[in-house]
Design brief:
Radius of gyration: 17 Å
Structural class: alpha/beta
Shape: globular
Helix content: 40-55%
Oligomer: single chain
Distance between the termini: 37 Å
CATH class: Alpha Beta
Number of helices: 9
């Protein structure tokens, strides 16, 4: 019996990168998965196709979790489609690096609306359906303690969700719902390719500082998330697991 058999999971921002890997990993473990996306339906459909081709169950659902109506509709669709909800993975996120001298309100609100408000709204909606044994897992970032220059706003959003998750771990514990965080280090994704980081001096510098000597892959993060979603992690809540190859 797979460790996630019978569970239903929603993964936000799952059309590519880490989110796509998480959706596939949860499905491989036996969960039925709602693959959320905002703009890339083709990407979400590709994830669903990969899951179903491997014998799993998945459906793609559009929704912007920074909007309360969309967040609620996403969770409601999961319950209507699969009959229950057991796992929420808050993976949706955006990042823009900018020196403090170039800070704008738009730069701030875009990141805080998706990265922080989105986590709050999706978790609020999910908490109405999660029962004993439920699991909320939020993807943060090791940037909160690496303190990368030009990332004040992005690092601020991730510091916020770390604090929020600690509060929610205590708030939801009486209902036996677990809340944990995974903080990836540098990971090779479509986003890091598009940003020109892959193959750059920046990547080489990061890898040189990483004790395990390589960049992370989406599957490295997905496997940690699948563990936290399973009953094997039943005694873990309020934790922040840094998955970074040892870089601090």
């Amino acid at each position: 019996m797979a460790k996630l058999d019978g569970k239903v999971a929603v993964v936000t921002g799952a059309s590519k990168g880490i989110g796509a890997a998480i959706a596939k990993e949860l499905a491989a473990g036996g969960a039925s998965v709602v693959v959320n996306y905002v703009s890339s339906q083709s990407g979400a459909d590709a994830v669903v196709d990969a899951i179903t081709a491997a014998g799993g169950q998945a459906v793609a659902v559009r929704g912007d979790v920074s909007k309360a109506g969309d967040a609620q509709a996403l969770i409601d669709t999961a319950v209507e489609r699969f009959g229950r909800l057991d796992v929420l993975v808050n993976n949706s996120g955006v990042y823009e690096f900018s020196p403090i001298g170039d800070l704008t309100e738009e730069h701030y609100h875009r990141q805080f609306d998706v990265n922080v408000l989105g986590v709050l709204l999706a978790t609020q909606a999910a908490s109405r359906h999660l029962g004993e044994g439920g699991s909320v897992i939020t993807i943060s970032s090791a940037i909160t303690h690496v303190s990368t220059p030009n990332a004040a706003v992005y690092a601020g959003t991730k510091g916020a969700v770390n604090a929020i998750s600690g509060v929610l771990a205590n708030e939801l514990a009486p209902r036996k719902i677990r809340v944990n965080v995974v903080s990836p280090g540098f990971v090779v994704t479509e986003g890091t390719h598009t940003a020109g980081i892959i193959g750059s001096d920046m990547e080489a510098g990061i890898v040189a500082q990483t004790p395990l000597g390589r960049a992370g892959q989406p599957d490295d993060i997905a496997q940690v998330v699948a563990f936290l979603a399973s009953d094997d992690a039943g005694w873990l809540t309020g934790e922040n697991i840094t998955a970074s190859g040892g870089i601090r």
